[in-house]
Design a protein that fits this description.
The complex is a heterodimer. Chain A has one domain. Chain A is 67% helix and 0% strand. The two termini of chain A are 37 Å apart. Chain B is mostly helical. Classes of the chains: A mainly alpha, B mainly alpha.
Chain lengths: 351, 164
């Protein structure tokens, strides 16, 4: 990015650019996901048109919705713990912004180049549980509290298979840095053939499936939407929220879906890279500068594919029961991912 | 180094306020949330010391798991909103001398063992690989022992919880 512009940007300027880039990287996917998948795809799957009035094919509907939520009255329950009630949505959104900080978008287009990037992503994604618990408790509503507790139980249970699924990738790439994981996939080869590099969706397929199921549960998307099950809990921990506080939760939900899909595409689909053998690149330094422009678009495309998968499952499957949900995490996903780690480690040493 | 020291002072001040609020607030959930502030401050201090892996572990283990379980427990049992009376027991005052003695002992131990040593300001940082080399090399036996203790604790918890 910097060498492309051919000007030396001072440190504060770079930092400002990175902050702005972070805002774009969170809000743009969130808006696109809501319009393309939540408004349009869900409508088509249910044999209806969805929003059609605002803008061509209803594409401006999103701005109308945001305007609607912003002008609604900001209601806080009398008995609520007001300060914590107001803090909770911000904590949830903050964890999304912290999460996007490690996603690499190109050889030089990154926000931070953490040595332990994957580990950091898994750690900060668990902060949103705090926000959800705070929201559930401070609302002074039994349904909210139940929703919050369910969410906490579910998110703890599915964080483990998620971490364990990533370990397979880390073993194969021999690094926890997301940039180097991207390079390892695109510069790698499967049985000597480097035509598509070595995207870990092929060699770590079990890990990929476990990771995507865990992501689905972490996002509390159906079939894992027990915490906000509307037929029994009204709307779970979000019951008492209205106006722009609800909007923050709403943005947080879909922005987190986008960011998790970006991380999954970085871990399993090769991230911003294309197989390096196509252009004769071998290492990070030999990658051409135009990848800094193409990289974000590639990540965005891969993210849309993965979010499509998440949404497709969301609109197709009925809800798990609470005990089925917990049993699935502890008795199916965790043993599978542990076995995956062992097999990966043995094969890594063998080859 | 000046900027780091200012950062350290600000974070330390926040941590001290948070720690005092943990024991003085009259609401159990508020106390747990103030504890989150203290633990997050510790993670921030690790970042200032360039101990990236340690900081992230602090966030993952303490904020992501331990505090969530704390909140989960308090919300399941006593989750009243507003002020709660009778949170202090009769030994509450005893905590002050204990805290002072503990602080003195730790300060003494630190200054005795690292008194005049200084952290390298521009030397190489400890990488995650070095940490894992240490854990799975010279410290493998203590690591195993700790794992066994944890496993025993987990099994014990299951045995206690399952009455049938």
């Amino acid at each position: 990015m910097l060498s492309l512009l051919a000007v030396e940007i001072p440190y504060w300027g770079q930092s400002l650019l990175r902050v702005l880039g972070g805002l774009v990287a969170v809000l743009l996917p969130a808006g696109t996901i809501v319009y393309v998948f939540l408004f349009k795809m869900m409508s088509f799957m249910q044999s209806r048109l969805g929003p059609m009035e605002a803008g061509p094919y209803g594409s401006m509907q999103l701005f109308a919705e945001v305007g609607k939520w912003l002008q609604k009255e900001d209601i806080q329950p009398d008995n609520a713990d007001k300060r914590i009630f107001r803090m909770a949505p911000i904590v949830v959104l903050m964890s999304t912004f912290l999460l996007v900080a490690v996603v690499p978008f190109g050889p030089d287009a990154w926000f931070t180049d953490f040595e332990t990037g994957v580990f950091y992503a898994l750690a900060v994604s668990s902060i949103s549980v705090l926000g959800i618990l705070m929201a559930g408790w401070s609302s002074a509503n039994k349904y909210s509290l139940l929703g919050g507790l369910r969410a906490a139980g579910q998110l703890i249970a599915y964080e483990l298979p998620m971490v364990l699924a990533v370990i397979g990738v880390v073993i194969q790439a021999e690094t926890m840095n997301l940039q180097q994981i991207v390079v390892a996939q695109n510069a790698g080869s499967i049985f000597g053939s480097d035509i598509v590099g070595n995207p870990y969706v092929l060699t770590q397929f079990v890990g990929f499936v476990v990771f995507m199921i865990a992501v689905q549960a972490e996002l509390t998307q159906a079939p894992f939407d027990m915490p906000i099950a509307e037929s029994e809990l009204v709307s779970g921990y979000m019951t008492e929220y209205s106006g722009f506080r609800f909007l923050i939760f709403f943005i947080g939900e879909f922005a987190t879906a986008g960011v998790f899909a970006m991380i999954a595409s970085t871990l399993f689909l090769g991230g911003w890279g294309i197989p390096f053998s196509w252009f004769g690149w071998t290492t990070m330094d030999s990658v051409d500068d135009w990848m800094n422009v193409a990289g974000p678009l590639i990540v965005f495309t891969k993210m849309m594919v993965l979010v499509f998968l998440i949404m497709w499952i969301r609109f197709s499957y009925p809800r798990f029961r609470e005990d089925q949900l917990q049993r699935f995490a502890w008795k199916v996903l965790i043993p599978i991912s542990l076995a995956n780690i062992m097999v990966t480690a043995v094969l890594k040493v063998a080859f | 180094m000046v900027a780091q020291n200012i950062g350290f002072a600000i974070i330390a001040a926040i941590m001290i306020v948070g720690a005092l609020r943990v024991v003085t607030t009259s609401n159990v959930v508020h106390a747990a949330l103030w504890l989150v502030v203290v633990l997050a401050g510790a993670a921030a201090q690790y970042i200032l010391l360039a101990a990236e892996f340690l900081a992230i572990t602090q966030v993952l283990v303490y904020i992501g798991a331990v505090m969530v379980l704390f909140l989960f427990g308090t919300m399941l049992t006593r989750s009243r909103i507003g002020r709660d009376s009778g949170l202090n027991n009769s030994y509450a005052k005893l905590g002050i001398p204990v805290a002072v003695v503990l602080f003195a002992a730790m300060a003494l131990a630190l200054s005795k063992s690292f008194g005049t040593e200084e952290l390298p300001t521009n030397g190489s940082l400890v990488s995650t690989q070095q940490i894992s080399d240490q854990i799975f090399g010279p410290y493998l036996l203590p690591f195993w022992a700790l794992s066994f203790v944890l496993l025993a604790a987990v099994i014990g918890a299951i045995v206690l919880a399952r009455k049938d």
